[in-house]
Design a protein that fits this description.
The chain has helices spanning 30-41, 54-66, 81-95, 118-146, 175-195, 222-229, 240-251; strands at residues 21-24, 45-50, 71-75, 100-103, 157-162, 200-207, 262-265. With 279 residues, the chain is of the alpha/beta class. Strand 4 (100-103), helix 4 (118-146) and strand 5 form a beta-alpha-beta unit. Helix 1 (30-41) crosses helix 7 (240-251), helix 3 (81-95) runs parallel beside helix 4 and helix 4 packs parallel to helix 5. The structure holds nicotinamide-adenine-dinucleotide.
């Protein structure tokens, strides 16, 4: 049965990120928007990166400002090295440093393998994987330069990569997307191993089905929603705020000993729901 009105948990916005400076890529919509707002409500000043929807990015910034934190809107294409470097320069000029990177920007260009063009393959890899590499590299440069500031955080910096359950679940018809997320998993773990001695934490969030524009076809009709529920034992779609709360916690010192981890947030989608009644 369809029930899309299940109440979400009330979120107490503890100021667990006070004094920290965060950058959220793709922060004008969906998961990135919810993450940017959650970090702002937790006390961080936030750079809201957008690619094409500047007005929405300013609305996100207004919400963060209303919560008492600073916000800066910066347009940049994360797949372009010069854009990423300009974005970081703007952030360091305005906020002085960076403590938290949420590499969230992502996209899909779906096609059966035998119809997928090299352009479709390359575009998704460029944005989803290379974009995270470029942003992580700039963030680590600043984390290493600055080091730990005790009164701000136990760590010299935190990176959260937005991955997906499709870093492990194969996805027919989405080979470029699944490959990009599988790549993020090993990129994240390798960076985490490399920079742990500098007290830099690197982790991934792996959402299941979250109600955002990227997957509207999977939830915006009753038939699609009912079909989706067959994959989700918890029997509701995820909301962007489910990811926002997790990002704020994972970026905070409450999660200080966690690095190289993938936190799956999927209402049980990875629990092989087809086996719920004996397989
Ligand atoms: P979305 O389409 O609302 O968000 C994607 C954001 O990335 C948009 O703001 C878009 O403008 C931005 N973006 C795209 N290309 C960009 C570029 N070149 N440079 C900068 N920004 C760019 O969809 P979403 O669901 O919020 O997706 C956010 C992330 O979450 C993506 O990485 C996606 O793969 C991941 N994710 C989403 C789901 C889901 O069910 N919605 C599940 C797993 C993972």
């Amino acid at each position: 049965m369809t029930d899309i009105s299940i109440p979400l948990p009330k979120c107490q916005h503890l100021k667990i990120l006070t004094g920290q400076k965060a950058l959220v890529t793709g922060g004008s919509s969906g998961i990135g928007k919810a993450v940017a707002i959650a970090l702002g409500q937790a006390g961080a000043d936030v750079v809201v990166n957008y690619h094409s929807d500047e007005d929405e990015a300013h609305e996100v910034a207004d919400t963060i400002t209303a919560a008492g934190s600073k916000a800066l809107v910066v347009g940049a294409d994360v797949s372009r090295e010069e854009d990423v470097q300009r974005m970081f320069h703007q952030m360091l000029d305005s906020f002085g440093t960076i403590d938290i990177l949420v590499a969230n920007a992502g996209m899909q260009q779906d096609a059966p393998l035998d119809e997928m063009t090299l352009k479709q393959w390359q575009k998704v890899i460029d944005v989803n994987l290379t974009g995270q590499f470029l942003c992580a590299r700039e963030a680590v440069r600043e984390f290493k330069r600055r080091g730990v500031v005790d009164e701000i955080s136990c760590a010299a910096g935190k990176i959260i990569c937005m991955s997906s359950v499709h870093q492990t679940i194969p996805w027919a018809g989405h080979v470029n997307y699944a490959a990009s997320k599988g790549g993020i998993m090993q990129m994240m773990r390798s960076i985490a191993q490399e920079v742990a001695p500098f007290r830099i934490r690197v982790n991934s969030l792996c959402p299941g089905a979250i109600r955002t524009p990227i997957n509207a076809d999977a939830w915006n009709t009753k038939e699609a929603y009912d079909s989706l529920m067959k994959l989700i034992p918890y029997n509701r779609i995820g909301e962007p705020e489910d990811i926002g709360r997790a990002a704020a916690w994972l970026a905070s010192d409450q999660a200080d000993y966690i690095t190289g981890a993938s936190l799956v947030i999927d209402g049980g989608m990875c629990l092989y729901p087809g086996f719920a009644h004996g397989g």
